[in-house]
Amino acid sequence: MKVRSSVKKICPNCRQIRRKGQIFIICENPKHKQRQKKSSKGRATNLSKG
């Protein structure tokens, strides 16, 4: 699985889904599997404002 900051559909069979706040691309072709990077930046700033 490729981990990228920007995920895109590569072929017509690719599907974009969201699981637990992350965006995934799943496809019949295993080479097209992708996951978007987590951004811990936004979470840390929200917790520190408390």
UniProtKB/TrEMBL annotation:
<dbReference type="GO" id="GO:0005840">
    <property type="term" value="C:ribosome"/>
</dbReference>
<dbReference type="GO" id="GO:0009507">
    <property type="term" value="C:chloroplast"/>
</dbReference>
<dbReference type="GO" id="GO:0006412">
    <property type="term" value="P:translation"/>
</dbReference>
<comment type="similarity">
    <text>Belongs to the bacterial ribosomal protein bL36 family.</text>
</comment>
<feature type="compositionally biased region" description="Basic residues">
    <location>
        <begin position="32"/>
        <end position="41"/>
    </location>
</feature>
<dbReference type="GO" id="GO:0003735">
    <property type="term" value="F:structural constituent of ribosome"/>
</dbReference>
<protein>
    <recommendedName>
        <fullName>Large ribosomal subunit protein bL36c</fullName>
    </recommendedName>
</protein>
<keyword id="KW-0934">Plastid</keyword>
<feature type="region of interest" description="Disordered">
    <location>
        <begin position="28"/>
        <end position="50"/>
    </location>
</feature>
<dbReference type="InterPro" id="IPR000473">
    <property type="entry name" value="Ribosomal_bL36"/>
</dbReference>
<keyword id="KW-0689">Ribosomal protein</keyword>
<keyword id="KW-0687">Ribonucleoprotein</keyword>
<dbReference type="Pfam" id="PF00444">
    <property type="entry name" value="Ribosomal_L36"/>
</dbReference>
<dbReference type="GO" id="GO:1990904">
    <property type="term" value="C:ribonucleoprotein complex"/>
</dbReference>
<keyword id="KW-0150">Chloroplast</keyword>
<dbReference type="InterPro" id="IPR035977">
    <property type="entry name" value="Ribosomal_bL36_sp"/>
</dbReference>
